[in-house]
Amino acid sequence: MHAPASRRILLADADAFYVAVARLVDPEGAGKARLLIVGGSAERRGVVTSASYEARAYGVHSAMPTGRAQRLCPGATVVPVPWEACTAKSREIGAVLRRFTPVVEQASSDEFYLDLTGTEQLYEGAPLETTARRMRDAVLAETSLALSIGGGSSKLVAKLAASLAKPRPGGATAGVLIVAPGGEADFMGQFALADIPLVGPRFQERLARFGLRTVPDVVRHERATLIGWFGEREGAWLYDRVRGIDGAAVEADREIKSLSRDETFATDLDDDDSLAAKLLALADRASADVRQAGLVARTVTVKVRDADFITRQASRTLPEAVQSDHAVYAVARALLTRLRAARRVPARLLGVALSQLGPAGGSGQLSLLEPAAGAVETERDRTISRVIDEVREKFGRDALSRGGADPR
Ligand SMILES: [Mg+2]
Q1: How many CB atoms are closer than 10 A to CB 1?
Q2: Residues with CB under 5 A from ligand 1 (ion)
Q3: pTM for this one?
Q4: N or C: which end of the chain has fewer CB within 10 A?
C-alpha cells in the first residue's frame, strides 16, 4: 500500500454554478444582472439556491429565504434554477474531466473529485498544478464555465484548497491551489473547525465546550485526550482531520443508488387517510428528486416504522422505469396497503425510496412514442410531472398539490 502522502487528488468545483448556468441560458436577462439570485421566488417562500458573487457581498447566501435575500440586496434579479441546463452542463464538465483521468467521482452537480495518482508518467512529470490548470482551461473553453481546483494528498485537503482557490470579492482569482505533499499540517493550521466537512453545528458546540474552535486549538492535544473527550471514533477522526489526514478513496463513477424521502411524525399516525396523504407527499418529493437528477427508477420501496420501533418495508420492481408522481404514488399506495394489512398499528415513520436508477431516456425507459400495454406510467404522466416541477420551481413547493388530502 502506498503512503497517503503520495496520492494526487483534486477537487474541481464550478464557480457559482447555478448562477453561471442561468446566465448562459438567458444572456439578455440573468446574463446582464450583476446582482443575481437563482432560486425560488419570495412570494412563495422560496429559498436561494445560489447567488452571484456581487450579491453575496451583501450577505446573500444559499438556503436563505429569497425574501430575506432581497431585503439584504435590493435590486437583485431573481430567476428560477434552470435544472435541465444544469444537468446538461454537469455532464459536460464530467466528460471533459474524465479525459484527464478515469478516476472521477461526482460529489454534487458541480463538484468532482479526481485521483491522478499514477498519472505522473502520462503527464511527463508535470506538476499537479500544471495539469489542474490545463483541466480548468479545457472546461472553460468547452463549457464556458469556470472551475476552482484544489489539490493535495487527500480529499479533505483538496476540498479545503478548492475553497481558498475560489474567486473573492475584489481579489484576484487564483483558480488553482495545490498543497504540496508534507505541507498538509501547515496548511490545515489556517482553518476553523467549522470549515472541516462533517463538523456540523452540534459537533461545533461540543468542541467549543472544551475551548476548541480552530485547528491549532485541537492540534495542541494528545490523541488520547481527544478520545477521552469525544469517544474513540470521533476523537480519532478529529485527531487525523486537523492534520489533513483522510484515507477516503476517490470512488470512480460512483452512482446514486437510491433516492428516498421519509418523515417521522410528531405524533404516531393510525388512520389510513392520513397515512395516504403523507405517502402522496413523500412520493411526490422522491419522484421530483429523481427527475431533477435526470434519472428514472425501476424499484419503489415503502418503509414503515411502527410505534414499537419495528421497521418493515415492501418493494416492487417494475418492468419499465418511471419518474412521474402519478406512477410512483400508485405503486407506493399498493405497497402501503400491503404493509398495513400485515400489521395494523400506529406508525411513527413513513418513507418512499426509489432505486434501480438509470438515466432518463436510456434503454429500459418507457418508449415515448409507444406506451407498452399495461404500462404503469404514460408519457402524459411524465409531462404532467415535469410541468408540476416547473410550476413549483417558479412558485414554490406549495403552489401545487394533487388531491384534496395532501396536507402540505
Ligand atoms: Mg460550486
Answers
A1: 3
A2: 13-14, 17, 110
A3: 0.64
A4: N
